[in-house]
User: What shape does this take?
Amino acid sequence: MATQSSRSAARLMMAPAVILLLGWMLVPLLMTLWFSFRAYLPLRGGDQGFVGFDNYVRFVTSSAFWPSIVTTLAIVVGALAICIIFGVLLAILLDQQMWGQGVVRILIIAPFFVMPTVSALVWKNIFMDPVNGLFAHLWRFFGADPIIWLSDIPVASIILIVSWQWLPFATLILLTAIQSLDTEQLEAAEMDGAPVLKRFWFIVLPHLGRAITIVILIQTIFLLSIFAEIFVTTGGAFGTRTLTYLIFQRVLESQNVGLGSAGGVYAIILANIVAIFLMRIVGKNLDA
Assistant: This one.
């Protein structure tokens, strides 16, 4: 049993790491808050003084603000739907005994380790190119006109690219959950004559509830800040400008650090609202 002296020694040893972590988190946040209340134009005179909430008002009243929020949420919801649905199906498939099972699992999980920039370039130039892309050749093979993916259905294209990257993560978590399922329940249901779909709906899916909520929580946090896929493919055009990309434009393209910092605060608020909402869902499932 730990004594008071051992607890004090443990706290003392942990203190440098905790202080470093807090500094790493709090310093950028405090700097963002500081710049959000100032007119800071690096190439046009630098810091021009305190402007109060002017940056916040300008950012939220911009014609691009609410469309960027809608686009952000559309990408998050679309990617989550694809990852959850196909993640469950792939997890069930990978749980079956098959030849070369280990190799198949590695191949399915591999896309998660590809850098977002590389992934976006591959999809843009190899799959979605309207002239020489793989999809264009398939369309012509069936006698149809190729789709110009990044201009005809740009948001769906981004969702497809992002889902390809995050599907392996969802599959891995859900596969782990499926492997922890008590097979005796499935065998008993099968002996009682329950069909496959009912066994899945009433036994497998409830068992995956906690894993699904964890996947939703973790992926949402990262999906809210996707940037590289949009920068490489559409450059924010065709209605694909998310909140993160809008902040990038305000800071780097407009050279307005104060306005971009205000957008960063809005992004933090949005992420926290979504995280709190999801945490409540996760908490209910974990307590069930």
